[in-house]
Amino acid sequence: MKRIFALFLLITFLGTNTMAYAAPVLEGHAEKSEQLRKELESELFTGQVEYMERSDVIHMTVSQVLDSNINIEGDEFFAEVVNDVEGDSGVIIPKGTFAHGRISNTTEAKRLGRAASLTLDFDYLITPDGREIPIEGKMTTKLHPVAETSKIIAQDVGYTLAGGAVGGLLALNWLGLEAAIASQGYTLAGGAALGGAIGLGAALIRKGHEVLIAPGDEIKVKINTSVPLPVYKDSALMQHEMKYPGLDITITNVKHEEDPFGEANTITLTVMISNMSDKTFSGLDSALVNDYNAVFRPSIFGDTKLMFKQIKPGEKVVGDISFAVDNINRRFWLTFYDRRNKKPLTKISVDNAYKNVSAKTKKKNDKVRTRKVNFKKQEDLFNID
Fold this sequence. Notes:
32% strand; Lipocalin; four-stranded antiparallel sheet; Immunoglobulin-like; 21 strands; 5 helices; globular; disordered N terminus; alpha+beta
């Protein structure tokens, strides 16, 4: 018993002294942490606060495939903000902010042309500076019942009309023009009625499409909460660039375009180049490099004015050059390489330049990127069901 009591006194004595000695260290650490936090905030933010309103819509792209055939309710996923969200005083949510979401509702594709649907709920954002912002956001691929019904009726009328036309042509082909005249057109009418019935039958058994949302597809997320957010300084959002002595490259315009196959995967840059360096290069020595270090060379399907242009020391040129990329929403750097060792000479941020692009061009770019609104999954050609 005495030993236990002595041990208790020893532990109490050591614990008290440990706390006494440790307190100033913890206090100093806390003070330094608070000082560092304030310094970081002063570098990132202007000191102003604005509110993200309920009516705001944030443009995002998912980080993995969401498929109505595979995913189920409760599945988690992440999405990434593809445009700076601006308030009256500046950016409040920067491009590259991640959003956490769950699939809250799924419906299967059904007969009568009713499409499958996915409903996505978002509960918080993670900004590039590490802040976690609680939100309530929602996005769904499901059409309003009136709009969906109108779309289905329009499609089914198309099926019926097509069936009637085919039926009439078949009757004319099988029975001949004389029979049509002799029967005062009843053979054509009968054929059209039969074809219309077949078309209507096809419409009744027609199954709606499945939903597929893939990385690069842009979704619009409606915000349901009012959230106070600090305003970023412009300098805090600038991307790092690499310059080469004597080589001055300025991106004056950024256009998002579709390729000849209708895919929105082309970025066309208007570039001003002043080459007062010791290097000679052309557009073929350039590439767009994204934040995953994927390299995309100039595209022959876009503007090729600068692609084959030789830019010698002492020359100044202005022109357009296009690049086909895998995901138009990523961050990119226009990079020129040394012809001899293939190492980068200069890297110019497309995102930095995009801040100075006209509002009219940005609106056109948004329209190109968000052209896909139904997220229709293409049917498997080898599926015989």
